[in-house]
Amino acid sequence: MFLRIPAIRRALRRFGRARRGAAAVEMAIVVVPFFLLVTGLAEVSMIGFAQTSLDFAMAETARRIRTGEDQLSNRSYTDIQSDLCSQVNNFLILSCNGNLYLDVQRFASFVDAANGQTSPIQNNQFQTGTFGYNPGAPSDVVVVRAYYRWQVMTPLFQPIFQNISGGQRILVSTMMFRDEPYMATTP
């Protein structure tokens, strides 16, 4: 047993001085954090791009409600949601069926609107039962909210990015405004 200890020591010293394969070892140490960083950056970028698309679509949809264009043309909830989907898909192709939701509510005042908003995320579930479509009349206070159910693409990042169960994130865009005093007919 004592005869082997010097041989083991020599082998360890030889291993410590060896430089062959050092680049492979360094690469093995660096590659995992690098790919995690790249994958996380791609996931965050896609979520950000989807959020920007939803914000743009919301601004266009809310403008038509605010100016009374949708009310005067008697457009339905389905028509407005279809337009919202088309606007979202101008920049990024997203599946709207079962993923895109619209909630348009009329309030008596801005204070009521601020106090009357509740989160549709309850117990890690997305609740759509209170959503409706009431664009109001001229000079009414209206809150328009659009929700998109985004599936987190990377399973490793699902616990970090999800805000509802099932590895999904709800993207939200909200606008609150007073409808313009539009007139049904022009004099």
Question: Would you kindly provide a written description of the structure presented here, covering whatever features stand out?
Answer:
The chain has one domain (4-178). The mean pLDDT is 88. The protein has helices at residues 4-17, 22-66, 69-72, 77-88, 110-115, 158-161, and strands at residues 100-107, 121-122, 125-126, 141-151, 168-178. The protein has a three-stranded antiparallel beta sheet. The protein has a two-stranded antiparallel sheet with strand order 2-3. The radius of gyration is 28 Å and the shape is elongated. 15% of the residues are buried. Strand 2 and strand 3 (125-126) form a beta hairpin. With 187 residues, the chain is of the alpha+beta class. The chain is built from six helices and five strands. The longest helix has 45 residues, at 22-66. Helix 2 runs antiparallel to helix 4 (77-88).
Q: Which short descriptors sum up this protein?
A:
187 residues; alpha+beta; 45% helix; elongated; two-stranded antiparallel sheet
Number of domains: 1
Estimated share of beta-strand residues: 15-25%
Query: Which sheet architecture does the biggest sheet show?
Result: 3 strands, antiparallel
Mean pLDDT: 88
Compute the CA-based radius of gyration.
Answer: 28 Å
Question: Helix/strand-derived class?
Answer: alpha+beta
**Order of secondary-structure elements:** HHHHEHEEEHE
Number of E-state strands = 5
Structure annotation, total helices:
6
- Outline the low-pLDDT stretches: none
Q: How far is it from the N-terminal to the C-terminal residue, by CA?
A: 109 Å
